[in-house]
Write a structure and sequence with these properties.
single chain, 140 residues, mainly alpha, 80% helix, 0% strand
């Protein structure tokens, strides 16, 4: 990962972990130990899924812009499907609170998305290479 990618990852992960900590505390107050465990699992799932997605999109972006778009779309699709599977599998769980799990996933996903958008807006990356030579523009 390059410096910009690490800054984007930190810009999304730090707010998500803060929101996740609040979610775990609220779940512990409302649901006891099972609530806290459910919320903690939700935070871990969101952090893992979205970190893996950002790494995949970053890697694909080094290959080509088309691969980056394909990785982003497929990554989103895979995340949504896996989250739906996890929510349906954990629906009747007794070791932790599925409700706390679900709410922490939702809240942490929103926090990650806002943090990632904010981080990318602050990066001020060039989308045009100012030193690129354009064929047919003279100078040669």
């Amino acid at each position: 990962m390059q410096g910009n990618d690490v800054r984007a990852l930190k810009g999304a992960a730090i707010p998500t972990l803060v929101v996740g900590l609040v979610a775990v505390i609220v779940a512990a107050i409302l649901g006891g130990g099972t609530g806290a465990l459910g919320a903690a699992i939700g935070v871990a799932v969101v952090a893992g899924f979205f970190t893996a997605g950002l790494v995949a999109v970053t890697w694909a972006g080094r290959v080509s812009p088309q691969m980056m778009m394909l990785a982003a779309v497929l990554g989103y699709l895979v995340k949504v499907i896996l989250l739906m599977v996890l929510l349906s599998v954990f629906r009747d769980a007794t070791a932790f609170s599925p409700r706390a799990f679900g709410w922490s996933v939702v809240v942490c996903t929103i926090a990650w998305t806002i943090g990632e958008v904010r981080a990318f807006l602050k990066l001020k990356m060039l989308y045009v290479d100012p030193g690129a030579k354009v064929p047919g523009q003279g100078g040669g």
